[in-house]
Structures are given as structure tokens and as C-alpha cells.
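Field reference: sequence -> structure
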Amino acid sequence: MISGWYPHPGQQAFLGSGAPVRVLACGRRWGKTEVIAAEITRSLLCGAARQTLLVAPSQEQALLGFERVREFLQRTGARPVVRRTPAPTLSVGDSKLWARSVARGGMLLRGRKAHLIIVDEAAYMPEAVVREVLMPMLADTGGKLALISTPRGKNYFYRFYLQGQEDGVRVWSLRSPSWHNPLLSPTVLQMQASLMTQRQFQVEYGAQFLDDVGQLFRTEWIDRALLLNLPDEGLTVAGVDWARYRDFTALAVLRGTRGGAKLVALRRWQGLSWREQIEAVARELRLHAPTRVLCDRTGIGDPLLEALQQAGVPHAEGVAFTQGFKQNLIQNLALMLEQGTLQLLPEPALLNELYHFEATPTEHGVRLQGASGTHDDLVIALALALWALPYDEFGNVLTSGQNRVK
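Structure field:
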């Protein structure tokens, strides 16, 4: 069908299913972008006018599949008409493809009709968007829905998967680990296995649905945080976690109080010089004008803090990371998630960090960090921003007797 592309058995199984709902849980490097592009290409070239929607947690993620569709169409000899503003749209005759994110809870998606909807990284998307926004778009057309993702705990994506295992007619599902892709080098898999914890490798490459044993931030807390619709009010604050080489410099911007806050922006950078990092962070902060900015000043943090202040962020403050302070930061983050007072953005990098953040007992207490082979920069930036929030107008302090960091 597509010149130069040969689907492996797992991809063939997905493409061969005619179920109204298909659920594909696959590992990294399995080839999900290719199978998404192949399915959309088939839909656009079927001869009838078809409206197709490719949805992902972020616009960047949606663009990966969009560009591969464009490439596949060109291989078939088709000449798609591409429009990139105000949002990516591709036309082949009377058929169209829209690539969209779930920004603002999917509000911008409402009111459309579609014959095919493919949800990339579905496990990282709020369930309400799928059930209340996307599925109704298929009602008038009798269209089909495909949920494709690496697993993230036993959330709604897992429940759809189980339904497919029990049904197979209305809902079809497949779990396929990375090594089912014959093009993936065993050497690469062995290297990744050596760099990750066993649990992380089982999820990311084995495509396994695992319970949140050892996970500090419970999956149900995070899923609830994606569904919240807190008022857009209160002070704007930010947190910055600096890094130079392997890790990322991360920035989180919040609005609200400790009684309730929403994440309004999240950015990270890697491989930049210190000067470039200062410029990038200062530029982003000027867009949101936070009243308070907390930065990690451990190590080389003091000169960076001074440079950030000189770059137009005079109210930036530095905090030194001791074991006790970090524990307080993470405990506050866990508590707000547990209490349902923090609204998150469906940003896959952050959700992945939260999912793999662990509290590991040691001789000297508890080590709080991302699992081996993962990053935790966004988590730390988020925790710093939460610490910068004022208490609510009544001065309430939330408490809980469960799931506290000891």
C-alpha cells in the first residue's frame, strides 16, 4: 500500500481489525507513529470524503504523526494540500486530516464530526476528553476510534484494553512489547534495560500495565488532576530547576493559592549554554509576569540567580536544597495531588516523570528522585512553584494522615 513500508505482524493486526474501537498498548520504538500514519493514509485515500482527527496530549506530539502522514501520502503519489495555521490541516480531495492537542480540556475540539479519530499517547490524556468530547464526534458518522499508547498504570486506557480482551468485536485490543518490532536492535534493548529500573523497562518497553507499587504520586491522583477545572484566579508564581548537560532546565508556572492552583505553563531546555538558559527562562517568565519565582541555587545556582535577576526578573529568589527541604517540597506536591487541589496540563514529559518518581528508603531516611534512567526536573520545578504559592485567604493548611512522605 505504501512504497517502502512493510508492517510487522503487530501493525498488521491493528490495521486488519474492523472493530469500532481499537486499543493498542505498545512499547517505545514499536512503530506506533508509522501505524498511525498508515491508518490515516488509508482513510484519506478510501475514495469517499472522510474527516479524520489525530489527537495527542501536546501539539508537538500530534505533529509527529501529521508529518508522517504527509510523507506516506507522497509515497503513494498523492499531493496533499497542507495548511499549518491556525492549526495543522491536510486535505486530499474532499477528505481532511486535523492534528490537534487536548489543550483547554479539548474545548477547541467540540462541535466537529469525524469518521476516524486516532488518539496518540492516549494513556496520558484525560478520560473525560475521550468519553465526553471525542466519542460523541463519531455518533453521526458511525466512525471509528483508535486509542494508542504506552501504558501508564491501570487507568481508563487499561480498562478499555481489558474490555477489548473480553469483547473483541465492539472493542479490539492488543498489547505488544517493543521487541515485536523486528527492526529494533536487541543491543539497543539490552542497553536500555541496563539503564532503567526493571519496573520502568517493563512499562516503557514491555508495554505492561503495572500497579503503582513504589510510586510516590498515585496514578489516580494524577488522572484526577488532569480533569479538574479550577478557577483561573490568584497570584502567578514560578519554579525553576537548573541543569547543564544530561538533565533539563525546567520551568513551571502556576496560578492560585495553596488551597487550589492550576499549572498554566511548563517548559524545559537541554544542551543550552548558561547564557542561553538565562535568556530562555527570562523570556518565558516575562510572558507570564509571576509575582514570585523560586530557583534552585544549590551548586552553581547563585550566579544563575543573579544573572536571572539582571535579565529582568528582579523578584527571583534562590533556595538551597537540603534533604529536609526537598522532602517538604515533595510532600507538599503529593499532598496537593492527593487532596485534588492541583490542576495539571496533559504534558507527557511531566506525567512520565510523576509516574516514575520514587521514594526509596535508605540508611539515612528516604531518597526522593526519579527512577534510574529517568528525569525529575519538571517535578522539581513544579514543586518549587507550589512552594512559592501563598496560602489561601483563610490561611488554611491542608493536612492528611495518609500517603505522607515519612
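Note: Residues 334 and 397 are 14 Å apart (CA to CA).
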